[in-house]
Request: fold
Amino acid sequence: MKTILEFNHSEQEAAGVDLKSLHWWHTCYSLDSWLRDQIKYHDKDYEDVRDMLHELLADNQISLDDMS
Reply:
């Protein structure tokens, strides 16, 4: 199956921003998951890093739960 989307110039810019936003979310979600695993299963002391990530997300009114 193949889907083709066609956009005018302004729509193309908006679609690019939307796609980049998804990539940013996935990157932050992956980092958070990795930090959680390191803390939980490998006894690593990254809790402050994970807390800072969540604080920065909250400051920008973003939650990793929004899209999962």
In short: The CA atoms of residues 26 and 36 lie 15 Å apart. Residues 27-68 form one domain. The two ends are 25 Å apart (CA to CA). The mean pLDDT is 89.
